[in-house]
Amino acid sequence: MRYVVEVHLKPEVSDPEGAAILQAARALGFDFLSDVRVGKSFEIEVKEGTEEKELEVLSDKLLVNPVVETFRIRRDDD
Amino acid sequence: MRYVVEVHLKPEVSDPEGAAILQAARALGFDFLSDVRVGKSFEIEVKEGTEEKELEVLSDKLLVNPVVETFRIRRDDD
Q: Which ipTM value was assigned to this complex?
């Protein structure tokens, strides 16, 4: 069973890396972008029978800085 | 319209950051994990009418190192 935990900065936190990518993309002619935000994506393989709740606890304790980041968990069936 | 471009190391490329997280998680008692891989997640806001194909070109040129990374694009409707 595989899950993906996606971690992003909260909307009110500024993201200089995303801003730099946006600027570089526009300089290269990609004018269809209006915003870019950079985050992390954790691909996590878990043992059968693991509940999503357990992954939430793990994310809170180890993967996310709750002061500036939020996260989403989704099952990855690809 | 928002898309997420998820970038991960290819399976054959070693991921020391993921390995460190796996080890730390087990030391904290999270024994339900069998593998952790760390990647990036780009949240990209695009203008109406932008096609996914254009995002593929952007990802290839600017966001991904095709030698060691792969990517997936998905529409983000949350």
A: 0.91
